[in-house]
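Bench notes, afternoon.
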Amino acid sequence: MPIPRLNEMSTELYGKRLWNLTTCLVPTMTVAIYFGELFFAIAVAIALLVTSTLKSSITAILFCCGLMAWTLAEYVTHRFVLHAIAPVQHGIHHARPHDAIDKIFWQIWLAFVVLYLVAGGAILAGALVAYAWYLLAHYCAHHNPAILPASLLKHHRDHHRFASRNYGVTTTLWDRVFGTMLR
């Protein structure tokens, strides 16, 4: 076997180095997407609350309504859309939960715009804060489980083992209400 010339060796080393840098970016992309969306959602929620012209008590009530609305929407979407209407793509997530996330679920941002137009800023602010909690909880469940409360982590991991149970990611409330909580 002939000895490679210096420029061939450097090209090969450069190619391997570039490949290593690229593969290192995949987890970085996951972090950027999750936390980029998280910080954006929190910033928009703060801006909506600061600019609200409603009484603070009304704003607080509507904000809490937004929190609850998000948790219900999360449950319904997860159970009936991801598991019933579009199970193939979500099934890949169940099979490989540690895979990198490389895209933003843009439809949720469209839904947030519609929510703003229909219900207003205070409710949207609550939904955005709950969505930020969802992003953090889901990221941590798969990539940094030590941060999550043990009961919520167990709830999510059980869902990956028993896909017809435990649809809530941020709360167990709706699984209890609708009888889908794994006992």
